[in-house]
Design goal:
Blueprint (H helix, E strand, L loop, with lengths): L32 H22 L9 E6 L5 H12 L3 E5 L13 H11 L2 E6 L4 H8 L4 E6 L5 H15 L6 E5 L6 H10 L6 E5 L8 H9 L5 E3 L11 E4 L10 H7 L7 H4 L9 E3 L20 H20 L3
Parallel strand pairs: 1-2, 1-3, 3-4, 5-6, 5-8, 6-7, 8-9
The structure holds N-carbamoyl-L-aspartate.
The site of N-carbamoyl-L-aspartate has 11 residues, from helix 2 and helix 6.
Length: about 325
């Protein structure tokens, strides 16, 4: 039966069965290439078809997702809410922690042990590295890492890879240049790790000296057979780049505001820079967003601009993850 003839309430078929590795989503290190290529990405494609042809499905009807955010978010929190609702489930969002018991001194563990009694899974964002793993160690329901401080952001990296695959046709063989705050940027930490699963990927890191990729990540990449090359300037690598992954300088993670002032505005992607880049079809510009001046709005109409597509793909990838996680729980 073709997609167009599928009735609106037709169930979503999950490819690959329920994978036992999907109890929690804590780090990209839990995934193999087969998990991505054979299960998560094909399921996300099915989700995209479901949304485009039917709007929603009842696949997760009756399931409840808690979205617990101790740090600001627009896209990650709302895409999880839309993802569960598009699959017929519902959500409880707590993002104003000042109105919750955390503000009275409740531990993260107790908040998790409480919220899991109401819901089937918890999406957690928290400012401390390792906090989401701590939450998972006490939880009896699946916990999804939506960002643990400057640690990891695994679901973002999954949607980033999905975007590269959709826009450039493949991940193998691409030259990926990550630019900006590589020290504090959890999205680049997760993405760099995940890229090592693919063949012949070249990684360039472009940042000011004080915002370099932490040495433990560099040595881990080397251990996986990928030797990233570090640069100060973007114009040195733009011509060879297939994926330009731009990040925000993370003001809130600086101990000293003068250091932030010294590096803010270090890199700006504009039409002049992109005139020296590869053409559409061979090159894309990505950003996890929010942007605060790193990409000028003139770039938005460039066919290589992929950052708002990332936003949409993020919902399909999160629908896939939720379907895979909640189907068996
Ligand atoms: C990022 C994050 O929160 O790590 N945003 C996102 O989740 N899409 C990037 C950022 O805040 O700069």
């Amino acid at each position: 039966m073709g997609l167009l003839s599928r009735p609106p309430s037709a169930p979503v078929t999950i490819l690959g069965g329920f994978p036992s590795w999907l109890q929690h989503v804590l780090s990209v290190q839990q995934f193999s290439r087969e998990d991505l290529d054979n299960v998560i990405f094909p399921t996300a494609e099915k989700m995209e078809s479901t949304v485009k042809f039917s709007g929603k499905s009842g696949f997760l009807s009756g399931k409840v997702l808690t979205v617990l955010f101790f740090e600001p978010s627009t896209r990650t929190s709302s895409s999880f809410v839309h993802a569960i609702e598009r699959l017929g489930g519902s959500s409880c969002v707590i993002n104003e922690v000042k109105f919750s018991s955390a503000a009275k001194g409740e531990t993260l563990e107790d908040t998790i042990l409480t919220m899991e009694r109401y819901s089937d899974a918890i999406v957690l964002r928290h400012p401390e590295i390792g906090s989401v793993r701590r939450a998972a160690s006490v939880a009896h329901k699946p916990i999804i890492n939506a960002g643990d401080g400057a640690g990891e952001h695994p679901t973002q990296a999954l949607l980033d890879l999905y975007t590269i695959r959709e826009k450039l046709g493949r991940i193998d063989g691409q030259t990926v240049t990550m630019v900006g705050d590589l020290k504090h940027g959890r999205t680049v930490h997760s993405l760099a790790r995940l890229l090592t699963l693919y063949h012949d990927v070249k990684i360039n890191f472009v940042s000011p000296d004080i915002l370099r990729m932490p040495p433990e990540f560099i040595s881990q990449l080397r251990g996986q057979g990928v030797t990233p090359v570090e640069y100060d300037r973007l114009d040195e690598v733009i011509a060879e780049t297939n994926v330009l992954y731009v990040t925000r300088i993370q003001k809130e993670r600086f101990e000293n505001l003068a250091d932030y002032e010294a590096v803010k505005g270090s890199y700006v992607v504009d039409p002049k820079l992109l005139a020296t880049a590869k053409p559409a079809g061979q090159m894309i510009v990505m950003h996890p967003l929010p942007r605060v001046g790193e990409i000028t709005t003139e770039v938005d109409s460039d066919p290589r601009a992929a950052y708002f597509d990332q936003v949409e793909y993020g919902m399909y990838v999160r629908m896939a993850l939720l379907a895979l996680i909640l189907r068996g729980n």
